[in-house]
Amino acid sequence: MRKLISTGSPFEKTAGYSRAVVQGDWCFVSGTTGYDYATMTMPDGVEAQTRNCLATISKALADGGFDMADVVRAHYYITDQAFVDLVFPILGETFGDIRPAATMIVCQLNKPEMKIEIEVTALRRSA
């Protein structure tokens, strides 16, 4: 059975996607940028954006019955190579013990204010 997870972001309806899709024991979380969805604002710093990304992802996973420890794959997209050393410690706070397979890519994102985008895949751990 498929379950669609939404943050209520206007982007989801406009672009036709879900924040996350749960299919069986899998949860696929869409690329998530640093917006604060309560205020629809984007912080200036990559550190705050990273923390917002992780909070949004954590909530989407929880809404689907998962938690961060279920994450098996992570993709990180940053807009400047200089951000690597700024975001690694933040990512380590969340994923240091989980240690999913991960890739970080330096690229351009959809809007100039976006400095990081994170997407994850989770697999429900067996009891």
Automatic annotation (TrEMBL):
It comes from the Bacteria. It holds the Pfam family Ribonuc_L-PSP. SUPFAM superfamilies: YjgF-like. Gene3D superfamilies: RutC-like (3.30.1330.40). InterPro entries: RutC-like_sf (IPR035959), YjgF/YER057c/UK114 (IPR006175). PANTHER family: BLR7761 PROTEIN (PTHR43857), YJGH FAMILY PROTEIN (PTHR43857:SF1). This is RidA family protein.
